[in-house]
Each structure stands twice: as structure tokens, then as C-alpha cells.
Specification:
The chain is of the alpha+beta class. 17% of the residues lie in helices and 57% in strands. An eleven-stranded antiparallel β-sheet has the order 6-5-4-3-2-1-11-10-9-8-7.
Length: 161
């Protein structure tokens, strides 16, 4: 079974290298200790380096990752921050080049593939992806950062081009 999954790595990488646009509804849960925040909205990914979160609940805001910048728009306020080069906020990096460069563990569970990456970036310690086994469609991302936050993003209504 593991051999089968290892042979699928190149198929997963090729799929995500070909995606030029993705749009999906999301529910994100952010936890730190006893505190939990749930956000809902939709996201858009445009190849190669643009990821936008349009958060509708609990408060409207936009978070945009483009190249090495993070832009947050909250009401009438806009904040722009330069990210460290090796922060790697782009999940598609991890599903293409990242699978090769980071310690990865792949598991097939029912009709899903789970990819666990041990990340050594300045931001993430560990990242987990859940994909549909047949189509490799991204269903969930779970990440743990160096500040003790746990992020879980569940995707639905996914459009890939």
C-alpha cells in the first residue's frame, strides 16, 4: 500500500502544478490553548503565488498572500506585511515541491489520502493535507505553527481550473 502511495506523489505534484485557479468555500478553525475562533468564507488561489481568503464570518475581512507579502483588509484599514522568504504560506508549494523537500508521510485512509509534512520553515512545524484518493482534490489542511496555533481549514464547493 505504501508503495502505491509513493508512486502517486508525482501524480499529485503534476495535478497541483497544472492548477491555475481554484475557488472554494471554507470553514477555518484557529486554536491556541483554550481559545478557538471559527471563520467562514471563500478562498481563491491564482497560480503561481496568490492566495486570497474572503472571510465573511464572524467579521468581514480579506487576507491576501501574494509573493512575499501578506495584506489584511479589515473594514477601511489595510495592513501590508513582508513575510520571511521561507515562511511558505502557499499550500500548493507543499503539494508540489514541498513533498520532495520535507519529510513526508503518506497514508491511505478509506477513500482519502493523508499527507503529513514535517515543515522546518520559520512559521510552520507540521502541515497535514487530506485529499480525495481518486481525484487528489484538496479537502482539508491542518497546520501547526511555531507560536502554538493550530489551523484547520475544511474546503467545499471546490472549483479547479
Amino acid at each position: 500500500m505504501i508503495f502505491l502511495l509513493i508512486s502517486q506523489i508525482s501524480e499529485i505534484q503534476n495535478k497541483y502544478l497544472k492548477i491555475k485557479y481554484l475557488k472554494a468555500d471554507f470553514t477555518q478553525t484557529i486554536k491556541q490553548g483554550e481559545n478557538t475562533i471559527t471563520q467562514k468564507g471563500y478562498l481563491e488561489y491564482k497560480s503561481p503565488n496568490e492566495l486570497k481568503f474572503y472571510i465573511k464570518e464572524p467579521q468581514e475581512q480579506q487576507i491576501i498572500f501574494k509573493d512575499s507579502f501578506m495584506i489584511t483588509i479589515f473594514g477601511k484599514d489595510t495592513f501590508k506585511r513582508t513575510l520571511p522568504q521561507n515562511s511558505m504560506f502557499n499550500p500548493y508549494y507543499f503539494l508540489t515541491d514541498g513533498i520532495k523537500f520535507y519529510k513526508s508521510e503518506l497514508k491511505k485512509i478509506n477513500n482519502k489520502i493523508q499527507i503529513d509534512l514535517s515543515a522546518d520553515t520559520l512559521f510552520y512545524q507540521k502541515i497535514q493535507f487530506i485529499l480525495e484518493a481518486n481525484t487528489y482534490k484538496l479537502l482539508k489542511i491542518k497546520a501547526f505553527d511555531n507560536a502554538g496555533f493550530e489551523y484547520e481549514v475544511n474546503l467545499s464547493n471546490i472549483i479547479e481550473k
